[in-house]
């Protein structure tokens, strides 16, 4: 019975809305009982695609148009620390309860070596091969602190603040849909940058350093062959208690394999400001809380292995996110779109990606 319960818990952790990747308050398709949606609206939007694979599984029979039935309630993972990596680490969730052996874990952070000016002392090649590759392949999550140094980080922050003042930021959207419910799911403001815009030179430099790292990792991150990326998504949570509910960036194979986030928040205090990124690694009874600290770089797998949420932020919170593509999966996603004759719910719209940052 225990094994069956564990399997049931794992199955629930794989359940996501087929349209937007959301993981909370799911409803089950009443016809096939194997696909899930966060609302009847999303079920209807996805029907042209879903009807191709929707098969009758249970009796009594129901019509294809029947709405979803109530999904299962979700179980919160046990709150314990993740283990420390090598040079780049996964910060654990602080455990305020005494563990069974009586030894309370200390607060672990990224211990990447730094230079006197605050920047990591490792070259992009060493940082990639000695820290990021082993940490990603072991944990699926990797944190690097002091990535570019205080001076460069401040320059990037000033670029972002200038952008925000121009009014270019718009409400964050969900993949392949626009609805009134979006604000209930995510509360950030975003804009997309390719690096050639005026007054974005420091953001462009950040993107080039991210690209350098991934280039040195290529061929060693899982089985991926990375051949491209999205534009940079600059995001701001205005600090009015908004966040982003638990979701998966790439639940259905759109090509994104690595999520790469750079944080820009000076003197961030999670107890006071909130805004933690909480990751729930698939199949593990633990979660990782990532504080959006200034000059911190975070990488994690973009697929269903890393459901995550942004907890409500009570201070202005900035981040820059780039998603990297696996060549084979991206080619399959494009082919699926082309053969789908432009049907809604099939097109991969990366400029309205789910935002983990």
Automatic annotation (TrEMBL):
It is found in: Nucleus. Residues 17-54 form the MYND-type domain. GO terms for cellular component: cytoplasm; nucleus. The keyword Nucleus applies. Its EC number is 1.14.11.29. Its cofactor is L-ascorbate. Residues 225-326 form the Fe2OG dioxygenase domain. It comes from the Eukaryota. It is an enzyme of class 1 (oxidoreductase). Residues 55-64, 72-81 have a biased composition (Basic and acidic residues). It catalyses: L-prolyl-[hypoxia-inducible factor alpha subunit] + 2-oxoglutarate + O2 = trans-4-hydroxy-L-prolyl-[hypoxia-inducible factor alpha subunit] + succinate + CO2. SMART domains: P4Hc. The keyword Protease does not apply. Keywords: Dioxygenase, Iron, Metal-binding, Nucleus, Oxidoreductase, Vitamin C, Zinc, Zinc-finger. This is hypoxia-inducible factor-proline dioxygenase. It comes from Poecilia formosa (Amazon molly).
């Amino acid at each position: 019975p225990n094994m069956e319960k564990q399997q049931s818990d794992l199955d629930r952790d794989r359940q996501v809305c087929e349209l937007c990747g959301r993981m909370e308050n799911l409803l089950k398709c009443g016809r096939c009982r194997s696909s899930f949606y966060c609302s009847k609206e999303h079920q209807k939007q996805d029907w042209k695609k879903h009807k191709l694979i929707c098969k009758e599984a249970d009796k009594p029979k129901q019509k294809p148009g029947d709405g979803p039935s109530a999904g299962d309630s979700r179980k919160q993972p046990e709150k314990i620390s993740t283990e420390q990596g090598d040079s780049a680490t996964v910060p654990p969730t602080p455990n305020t309860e005494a563990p069974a052996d009586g030894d309370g874990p200390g607060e672990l952070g990224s211990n990447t070596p730094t230079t006197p000016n605050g920047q990591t002392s490792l070259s992009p090649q060493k940082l990639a091969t000695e820290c990021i590759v082993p940490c990603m392949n072991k944990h699926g999550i990797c944190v690097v602190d002091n990535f570019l140094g205080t001076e460069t980080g401040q320059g990037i922050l000033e670029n972002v603040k200038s952008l925000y003042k121009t009014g270019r930021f718009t409400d964050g959207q969900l993949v392949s849909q626009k609805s009134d419910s979006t604000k209930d799911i995510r509360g950030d403001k975003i804009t997309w940058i390719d690096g050639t815009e005026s007054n974005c030179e420091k953001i462009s430099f950040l993107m080039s350093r991210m690209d350098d790292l991934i280039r040195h990792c290529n061929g060693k991150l899982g089985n991926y062959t990375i051949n491209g990326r999205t534009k940079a998504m600059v995001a701001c949570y205005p600090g009015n208690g908004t966040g982003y509910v638990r979701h998966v960036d790439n639940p259905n194979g759109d090509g994104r394999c690595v999520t790469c986030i750079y944080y820009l928040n000076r003197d961030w205090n999670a107890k006071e400001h909130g805004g933690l990124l909480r990751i729930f690694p698939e199949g593990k009874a633990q979660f990782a809380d990532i504080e959006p600290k200034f000059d911190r770089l975070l990488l994690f797998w973009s697929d269903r292995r890393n459901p995550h949420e942004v907890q409500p932020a009570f201070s202005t919170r900035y981040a820059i996110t780039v998603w990297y593509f696996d060549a084979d999966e991206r080619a399959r996603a494009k082919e699926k779109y082309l053969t789908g004759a432009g049907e809604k719910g099939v097109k991969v719209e990366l400029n309205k990606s789910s935002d983990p940052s």
